[in-house]
Each structure stands twice: as C-alpha cells, then as structure tokens.
Amino acid sequence: MTGNQTDLKERRDFPRALLQAAHEQLAFSPAIVLLGPRQVGKTTLAATIAKAYPGAISLDLQLADDREKLVAGSGFLQAHRDRLVVLDEVQYVPEVFAQLRPEIDAQRRPGRFLLLGSASGKLLQQSSESLAGRVSYLELTPLQVREVVTPGADPKATLLALQKLWLRGGFPVSFAAPSDALSFGWRTDFIATFLNRDMRELGVNVPAQTLHRFWRMTAHLHGQLFNASNIAASLGGISHTTVARYLDSLVDTKMLRRLEPHFVNVGKRLVKSPKVYVRDSGLLHALLNLPDVNSLIGHPMAGHSWEGLMLEQICALVPKGADVSFYRTAAGAELDVVVELGSKKFGFEIKFSSAPTVTKGFWQACQDVGVQHAYVVAPVHQGWPMKSGAAHSVDVISPSQLAWALAR
Prior knowledge:
- By secondary structure, the protein is α/β, with parallel strands linked by helices.
- It has helices at residues 3-7, 18-26, 42-50, 64-68, 76-79, 96-106, 121-130, 145-148, 155-168, 172-175, 180-201, 208-220, 228-234, 240-252, 281-287, 293-297, 302-317, 360-369, 402-406, and strands spanning 31-35, 57-60, 85-88, 113-117, 135-139, 224-225, 256-259, 275-278, 323-328, 334-341, 344-350, 373-377, 384-387, 393-397.
- Strands 9-10-11-12-14-13 form a 6-stranded mixed β-sheet. The protein has a 5-stranded parallel β-sheet with strand order 2-3-4-1-5, sandwiched between helices.
- The protein is globular, with a radius of gyration of 22 Å.
C-alpha cells in the first residue's frame, strides 16, 4: 500500500450506523468485541466511541510496547479499572481473553473493555470460551447504502453515490479514493496483503496462490450454487473436503458469505446446495478485473454483483437472531432472499433494472414460503406497490428503503 493510499483514510469520516448499537452495548456489557476485516474502519469507529469515555486508553496489540503492558502481573488492567480500555488487533494476543475474565469478575461494571479484532472463527471461539456471559459481539461491515447516501439528496446524487458504492465496494479507503483507478489499485493490493499476510497470521496455512485461485473461482460463481466437487476438479483434483476447508476460511474471515437454502414442508424438490457471495462488491470486481463502471455494466456478472450488494445491505440491517436464506425449487420457484424475524417472513427479489418485472416462479415462491411482505429491490429512486392482498403484499423498493421494508 502506498503512502498516498494510506493517507486517504483520513480524508472523509463516515457516519457509521453501528455507533449507536456500540454505545448501547457498552452501557450494558462489561466488554464488547468489534469484529470486521482489516481496513473496514474499526479503529476509526473505536476512536469515536472512546470520545464519550473521558480518559479512555487505547493499546495496539500489534505493537510490542503495547503488548508488554499486558504481560501477566503487570497490574496495567487493575490500575485502569475506572477507564474504558480499547484493545486493538486482539487476534495477535489471544491469551488476553483469559486475562480479562478475572479482571471483569473483580469489577463487573459496564463499559470496561472495547476489543477490536479481525474476524475469524478461531478468534470467536477463544473469546466465547474465556468470556462467556461477559462480552457482546458486534460486526462492522463495509460501508452500507445508508452510510453513503445523504437523506433527501436529489435522485442524481443518490444514484451516483450508489453506483460508486457498488463499483468500489464499502471499504472506506477504496470508496473515498480520488479516482476509480486508485480505488482499484488499493483493492488489488488489499487482496494480495490479505492472502500473503493476514491469512497466515490467522492460522490459515494454505499457499496464497492456491487460495487466490479459489477466491477467483468463487468470484466467477458469485450468487450461484456452490458445488465443491466441481471446484475441486478445477483446482487440480484436490478433495472436495479441502475445498470446503478453503470456503470455511474465507467465510470465517468475512470475505465470503455462504447463504443456505430455506426449507419448508411443501412436498417439493428443494435445492439443497448453498449459494456463495464475495461479501464486498469492490473486492468482487477486483477479483473479476472490472476496474470501472463501463466494464462492470457490460459484464455477464453485473446482475449477480448487484444481487450480492443488496444481500449485504439486508444482512447488515436484520437484528441478531434473524435467519437469512434463499428459496429455490427444482421446478423454478425462487426467492433471492428470505428473512425470518420471529413469526414474520419477508421475501426479497433483487433485480438490476429500473423497470423490474418478476416471473411466475417468484409468485409461487412467495406462496410456498408464506411471506407476509415481498419486495423487489431495484436501482430506482422511489418505489411503488406491485400487488396488495390478504396473503401478502409486494412492493418495488429502492436500496434506501430496505430499512423501512424490514421494519414493517
């Protein structure tokens, strides 16, 4: 990463939707773990949170001097029991979780620790085993539509912001770059660094070149059914269990999303394979070598790319405990996204069209799943009702209306 690219992080501060939830959790829990990939904005958000806590202390555990402050018997944590302690890059010192447990028990009050870490299954396991009942988890995603689109902006400005988010993705440095070329270069460098350094540091011992080939293959299969055996054959005849391990590694680190099928007892042949998505659209386009809007719009993956972007917006908006899946039958009934919130079911069909239409399979899927509300998400400025009835209603909505849709 060049010096100029690093400086871009300071050029724009984005209002992160997670800020309120973080304050609420800190007011309730002794510790929260803020998870997310590197460069997604965790440190910047933590600095904003810390401003509300006078005397807050921050340690970067990637630095040896800061790690030394937490050695056993140092007394550092005991000496700062009256302050918020922010521990960044906790994945470098996993033993810190065991050290925090007796300290929290010694003085159990809200807002003692804010831990930041690159997401991984191993990190979650270590923290949950050591801090069970003492910690809450929040995930900071790449930038969302609601964080980059100004409420009340004119349609042209809204469309341009949405197009920029789609092309460049939601990593703040990439989104705020002065040009598409600089953004694309940053993302290409990010992928290389992630594979060559970050994955090894997280304990994933797979050659970077092999994992890069696999990641590019999943990019070409973005939004489609995942067949481990076919990918194994394309990677030179490795086992499908090895492919599943590669997939788990990139899902754990929040680079890929595995969307499971929704099952209902309708007596029909249902698709049982998951879909796989590259979670950040900007990284997807870097993996597919799509540096600008013109190359993206004309690419066969454009519709699937838009679908992945909207899926991530939905997943970021649903509360903890919600189930997100897709529905498809062998006969062609299909819903891109099914969200279950308690007794409510919402269906989402995602279309890359300013005049979207749906097929007979969509209506059949709505009936099979039993949704209360269904939505067609499209790049439109303002939505409109498509159907209303006793069983369910269907509306065309813009990306900015997703929060409204899920709150009904």
